[in-house]
Amino acid sequence: MITAAAAAQAPLSGGNGAAAVQASDVSPADEGAEIVVTANRRAQALTDVGLAISVLDNSQLENRQVSSVNDLAALVPGLSIGNSGYATPIYSLRGVGVNEPTVGAGSSVTVYVDEVPLTLPIFTRGASFDLDRVEVVKGPQGTLYGQNATGGAINYIAAKPTDSFKAGIKGSYGRFNTASLEGFVSGPLSDSLKGRIAVRGERGDGWQKSFTRDDNLGKVRKLAGRAMLEWEPGDNFRALLNVNGWKDRSDTQAPQLIKIVAGNPAVLPFPFVTSAPFASGNDRSADWDRDTDFDQNAWFYQSSLRLEYDIADDVTLTSLTAYSKFHNRSAHEADGIGFSPALGRDIIDGRYDLASAANSFTQEVRLSARFSNINFVLGANYQRDNVDDFQLGHFDDFSVISNFFGVDINTTRNINHQRVRSYGVFANLEADLTDFLTVSGGLRINNETRDFKGCSADAGNGNAAAGYNNFTNFLRAGRGLSPLPASQRIAPGGCLTSNADLIPGFKVDRLEQSNTPWNININLKPFNRTLFYARVSRGFKAGNYPSLSAGNNASFTPVSQEALLAYEMGFRSNAIEGLSIEGALFRYDYTDKQQRGRKDTGFPFGLVATQVNIPKSRIDGAELSVGLRPVEGLTLSGSAVYIDTKIKSYTGYSIEGPLVNMAGLPLNFSPKWSVNLDANYATPITSNLKLFGGAGLAYRSKTTAQLAASSLYDIDAYTLVNAQLGVEDSDGRWKAWVFGNNITNKYYWTNVVKFADTVTRFTGMPATFGVSFAYKFN
Questions:
Q1: Which among 519, 559, 520, 521 has a CA at the least distance from the CA of 541?
Q2: pLDDT tens string 594-621
Q3: Do residues 618 and 654 make contact, with C-beta atoms less than 8 angstroms apart?
Q4: Model confidence over 326-376: pLDDT tens digits?
Q5: Are 304 and 327 in contact (CB under 8 A)?
Q6: Which residues are CB-neighbours of 104 under 8 A, at least 6 positions away?
Q7: What is the pTM of this model?
Q8: Class of domain 23-776
Q9: Is residue 93 helix, strand or coil?
């Protein structure tokens, strides 16, 4: 995706051959200006980088009301972001992703803020504010960005402290009484020290409406902040301290009920079937348990320190140190069914209460240098993650656990502790063989140890313990074993999961894995500001342990790491004034792709929902982006991504039960077409005022949420249209505008999930509209 913006601010200048370019150096109105990116860990002109990159500058982010990572999905072709039904977002880029909600599982698309990793997807929810730009780098990025970047990387470039005093404020008010206010103050504190503080707050009323009563869900209560200090005591040393965090007390989203799929129809209550309202084509309508507060108390903070020392001209030593901490408690409606007027009560109670905590420490040290016609980077990194993930499931009146060995089980807990230690060493070399030919290559050696302790457990009330004690003794009797002795019986709060000897307790395990991602690039620049490139790369995503309801330890078998071999050829050019164009063809060969699916654990527990590996699959695709400035003030742009995904070999169980040979079927969360069209126009209307406006269209074709499933699990095609219209003063000091998002009020959804006896979908936001303003005090 090509933006009309000019250069944006690089993190810090360095001694590796490219000085940082400040956003203030070139105005976005400068039509001939070059876009600067840092995808290769140094500031480079976009037309020097042999990668597929979508760049969104701060004006685009501001005008399109981008306030969360979910908003990027409507702006970046090929990027999909789904609601997992838990607190963890699901990222997919060019069809590369995994629908696994476990907090400690990681993602195939990594997210960074100024090269500092947000190591878990759940950390990413509050990063989208006070930004200079966003870079979305597509394809495996394991050499510079580590493992778990098989799909690519999202790089947030935060606005930095400025050399002179600057301050600004912006806000908006719109539908559902949604209001936001954001401000920053930046400037020098001494001759060698400067700082920046930015804060954003957001609130809103509930946007979901209950089918059965006068009740709303979906209130917004968010707060985020970032404080930076940049110290430069001399010409050869720089330090940047970044302390940031966010807090979210918003409601969680209720899914819409699509269908009842009873696991045991014989015990399904008749009123359950007849009284439950189903999805009606209205994205606001849903239902939920009226006696539960579906809110959350989530917070995150991170401190990072970047140190740069110029050892010599064009030789820089960089250290990046970061510590992150996360906490979440939240309640999530799971079945989409609420109050029944016919019964005078809530029909069933299907929900998850989540309690998660995680902390992460990362350290990277690298040496960057340029000698004559060679740039190289040598580095090492260490990462330590600790994740505690608790899921309390409520299953009142569900058929699948009704009268379980004499007990109607209504609650269970899933306990998941993962401790991850990983390290890597990496190198990247780029050589200018001639003025127009550059070759580069990178290599990383990764090693990871993941320790696991987990089980499914009684909720503390003894309900599930009683049923599982009876069940375990039944199984033991079948083997000729005596009943569990008192010392091994499941106590209230104890583990229900049994080992191979039918003794309940925690599963304790360790997964050790290593991999070697690499890439080779050839860049050809036949003339100025035009690039042709060819790239071959290999990336890996680490294996992990699932969170799930498990009757035996076999259910906790970890998924193995996946590997992706990518071939790509592309070009980009803005050599013709007023025209920029880029395109790419790519082929991805997947080995052991990770996937949320079902696995047969044998008698007596049979099929369980867990992670599986698809042995062989592939993705073929193409991209094309065009930007055009036909007349002064008018910018037109269009981007399209086409992907064709195919499973080459895999036989597994579908979400609906049967064992299926899935060879030839497409991957899930992989729409064939992603298209974005934008038009923006600005013109003076007086000597001091300028009128600006724009409209954007985002189209995503049909895909599916589950492999080898019926149309029940389809995610239908949809088109979203956004628009803005406003005025600003000629100096860009202030502006005010009206906006509309999803102005056609398109009904769409991003995920379909199965929970016990129900299938539900998570809808996107309905039409929203409002007014915004921005003012700069400098």
A1: 559
A2: 988 888 776 666 677 788 999 999 999 9
A3: no
A4: 999 999 998 888 877 766 666 777 888 999 999 999 999 999 999 889 999
A5: no
A6: 120, 358, 385, 387, 389, 416, 418, 420, 544, 545
A7: 0.89
A8: mainly beta
A9: strand
